[in-house]
Amino acid sequence: MTTREELHDLIDRIDPDELAAVAALLHSYARRDTAQGAAEPPYPRSVGILSEAPPDLSARVDDYLSDGFGR
User: Fold this and answer.
1) Is the pTM of this model over 0.85?
2) Beta carbons of 46 and 60 less than 8 angstroms apart
């Protein structure tokens, strides 16, 4: 069974009282209409948190931690 078929099967088994909540959750993952412009998928806020980090962060992690990085 493909993932798409599995999802359809799961939806068929959802309690009718829960369908609105499940639909709301799925809307956040659904592709946007391309006429409205493609939107990024919903990422957690933590994604990209280190985009301003020093470029040598991974190479010098011990140095940064010993200096009290994050205090």
Assistant:
1) no
2) no
